[in-house]
Automatic annotation (TrEMBL):
GO terms for molecular function: phosphatidylinositol-4,5-bisphosphate binding. It comes from Populus euphratica (Euphrates poplar). GO terms for cellular component: exocyst; plasma membrane. Pfam families: Sec3-PIP2_bind, Sec3_C-term, Sec3_CC. The gene is LOC105130357. One of its GO terms (biological process) is exocytosis. Keywords: Coiled coil, Exocytosis, Transport. Belongs to the SEC3 family. SMART domains: Sec3-PIP2_bind (SM01313). InterPro entries: Sec3-PIP2_bind, Sec3_C, Sec3_CC. This is Exocyst complex component SEC3A isoform X2. The lineage of its organism: Eukaryota, Viridiplantae, Streptophyta, Embryophyta, Tracheophyta.
Length: 745
């Protein structure tokens, strides 16, 4: 027989070299053939392209613990062994010999820590059964001694394995520890010292001793097994006959026992009859007791239900009761400021009472009761009466407040004094009824429409009066000389000095108008939105610039006063900031009623400024654009529309000025033929200089459009001259182009 590769020392040294540096000791190394099995195909061995591999069993000691590994090594291109896979024997769960291999040399090793159990494990094929038994025997020994357990064994005859283990006792290295606590030393023991529990588990030690004792009573040779079997049969028959004889000899005793059993049966029958009688009586008594308990339970349940019913009725009556003080406030109480606390408490009680009689908050069983329906009708009447009284009072109250302010001239600008509108007192008085409006909204949303119209109508009169008086006094107090609107006609020295007159006070007056009234209109819009319970975002975000003037203000007398426009003071508990598109549309419609007509006074200021100096439209356009870019809140829609209309009107007035100037150029075409355009190239330079001085913000586009129009008209005029008199065409063009470049420089 060929020498087994397990005894190949050169192979062992090659394996040790391959795992050098791992501090592991090679226990056994053997050559195998690796193939990949195919699941579910019976009748075939399932090997495809077997590859040569080396299986090496190794151990590693770490203190008192020893770890065991199964290494798979493969041959590199140069024929040198190199590690391919590493398995830990502590995860070995099954050793199975492939039944389809008639030689019995092919087996698989199952590990319980493999990631994919759906892939068939590799199959290992040995050269012969001895090599297979030697490898498996070594694996089982290591699992028993190092790990203290054995994997599941499938397809191997354990008796055959035990016999093979007795006949083959090769030496295997074993790790032992020195008694003096030193490091581990390597000792050589036989495989008989490491016998697998397979052999020991066939029969127990006690069973083995009993069998040896039984066999020892019979002195027979090895070939007398048949005689031994016949002897055992005869002795068994003798024992059975002796047992039957003993039973027949005990017949008198059996008869005595039968008589005793018959007497006992009679006693049992009598006892059964008595027990039947007692059972009937007990059944009757049990039925009576159950009937009594049923009646008692019904009475007890009725008593408990009566108590619960009384408690529920008391709670319901408490809900249905209308406190006299609240009823008095709701039907005929005063709405004076000192009585508002009682009115608010009555509103809160009425809102809670109506909500408490609704099905989600009231048991549906009570909802159809006559008393509940009647009480709900009574509360609805109270609500209608209170809403009508409160709405009528608030409409009259708004009108009286505004009438009082309009009748007092000290609230408005007067001759020689510009008065900044102050609505702090008006808002303070309105805030007194803010919570009342919120409760009116919760009671009846439809009542807010007439109230909003009444408030807008009254306040609109006040705002238009303030704007008109302020605009009139602003124009009267502004001193500025009027500049002519004709810039490109022939001018004398006196008119040239008029062109240079300072008209900055016109722009300042327009800016003052915006500075005073645009924040006022935004604040009034914000106050109105929250005061009249519109569910919209805040009009002016915290820290936002409302007036578009970051550098200063134009307050004449009240620079340090604060209007205290914190609308959230109306109800600090109302933190809703959700945007409601329907409320936003209704708010913009109401703001149109609130602020409509005030734009006429702004238009009057713009027209007045245009008459004094048309070029001031450039600076007013930039001021308006700055304010327009500061209005970003969705609910300030009317203010943005007002600023947009102002910007459009200013642009229209400036376009009117540009058109008139262009018309002057076209009208003076006859004089240009005689004198050339040199006469008003300098005047155009003066005009351009003034226009550049007035540019603010986004007004550059406005000026550039004017430049384009002026230059286009001038060159069109030159082209007409050239067509009329070709003799001077080149002279005119070169002369005027050079002059125009010098003026632009």
């Amino acid at each position: 027989m060929a020498k087994s590769s397990a005894d190949d020392e050169e192979l062992r040294r090659a394996c040790e070299a391959a795992i050098e540096g791992t501090k592991q000791k090679i226990v056994l190394s053997i050559r195998v053939a690796k193939s990949q099995g195919i699941w579910g195909k019976s009748g075939k061995l399932g090997r495809h392209m077997a590859k040569p591999r080396v299986l090496a069993l190794s151990t590693k000691s770490k203190g008192q613990r020893t770890k065991a590994f199964l290494r798979v090594l493969k041959y590199s291109n140069g024929g040198v062994l190199e590690p391919a896979k590493l398995y830990k024997l502590k995860h070995l769960s099954k050793v199975e010999v492939i039944a389809n291999d008639p030689s019995g040399c092919t087996f698989t090793l199952g590990f319980d820590n493999l990631r994919s159990q759906s892939v068939a494990p590799p199959q290992w094929t040995m050269r012969n059964v001895d090599d297979r038994n030697r490898l498996l025997f070594c694996i089982l020994n290591i699992c028993k001694d190092v790990l203290g357990r054995l994997p599941k064994i499938v397809g191997i005859d354990v008796v055959e394995m035990a016999l093979w283990a007795k006949e083959n006792t090769p030496t295997v290295p074993k790790q032992t520890s020195q008694q003096d606590g030193g490091g581990p030393v390597e000792a050589t023991v036989t495989e008989s010292d490491l016998k697998v529990s397979v052999e020991r588990e066939l029969v127990s030690q006690a069973e083995e001793e009993d069998m040896e004792a039984l066999l020892g009573t019979y002195v027979m040779g090895i070939g007398e097994a048949e005689a031994f079997s016949e002897r055992l049969k005869r002795e068994l028959l003798a024992l059975e006959a002796a047992n039957v004889h003993a039973i027949l000899e005990s017949e008198p005793l059996v008869e005595e026992v039968l008589q005793g059993l018959e007497a006992a049966t009679n006693c049992v029958d009598d006892m059964d009859e008595w027990l039947g009688i007692f059972n009937v009586k007990l059944r009757h008594m049990r039925e009576d007791i159950e009937s009594i308990e049923t009646r008692n339970n019904k009475l007890e349940m009725q008593s408990v239900n009566n108590v619960s019913l009384i408690e529920e009725l008391d709670k319901l009556l408490e809900r249905l009761r209308v406190p006299s003080e609240h009823a008095a406030c709701l039907t005929g109480g005063s709405f004076d400021e000192e009585r508002m606390l009682q009115n608010i408490e009555a509103c809160e009680w009425l809102t809670g009472a109506l909500r408490g009689l609704q099905v989600p908050n009231l048991d549906p069983i009570y909802a159809n009761m006559c008393a509940v329906k009647e009480k709900r009708t009574e509360l609805e009447k109270l609500k209608t009466t209170f809403v009508r009284r409160a709405s009528e009072f608030l409409r009259n109250y708004f009108a009286s407040l505004v009438d009082f302010m309009i009748s007092d001239k000290s609230y408005f600008s007067q001759r020689g004094q510009l008065k900044r509108p102050d609505h702090a007192d008006l808002r303070y008085k309105c805030r007194t009824y803010a919570r009342l409006l919120q409760h009116l909204k919760s009671l009846d949303k439809n009542c807010l429409g007439p109230l909003r119209k009444a408030y807008c109508s009254s306040l609109n009169l006040l705002l238009r009066r303030e704007a008109r008086e302020f605009a009139n006094e602003l124009r009267a107090s502004t001193k500025a000389s009027r500049n002519p609107t004709v810039w490109l006609e022939a001018s004398t020295g006196s008119s040239q000095s008029a062109h240079n007159a300072d008209t900055s006070s016109v722009s300042e007056a327009y800016a003052k108008m915006l500075t005073i009234f645009i924040p006022l209109l935004v604040d009034e819009s914000s106050f109105f939105a929250h005061f009249m319970c519109f569910e919209v975002p805040a009009l002016v975000p915290p820290g936002g610039v409302v007036n578009g003037n970051k550098g200063g203000n134009y307050n004449d007398a009240d620079d340090d006063e604060d209007d205290d426009l914190g609308i959230m003071d109306i109800d600090e508990n109302d933190g809703k900031a959700g945007k409601n598109s329907a409320d936003l549309a209704a708010l913009n419609e109401s703001l149109q009623d609130l602020l409509n007509g005030i734009q006429d006074d702004f238009y009057a200021v713009v027209d007045w400024a245009y008459k004094i100096d048309p070029l001031r439209c450039i600076s007013m356009h930039g001021i308006t654009e700055r304010y327009l870019s500061g209005q970003k809140a969705d609910a300030a829609g009317f203010v943005r529309l007002l600023l947009g209309d102002l910007e459009s009107r200013i642009s229209m007035q400036f376009s009117r000025f540009v058109d008139e100037a262009c018309h002057q150029i076209e009208r003076n075409e006859r004089n240009v033929r005689q004198t050339g355009v040199l006469s008003y190239i300098p005047r155009f330079a003066t005009l351009a200089t003034r226009m550049e001085q007035y540019i603010q913000g986004q007004s550059r586009d406005l000026v550039d459009q004017a430049y384009t129009k002026f230059v286009s008209i001038m060159f069109v005029t030159l082209e007409k001259i050239a067509q009329t008199d070709p003799k001077y065409a080149d002279v005119f063009l070169l002369e005027n182009y050079a002059a125009f470049q010098n003026s632009c420089m």
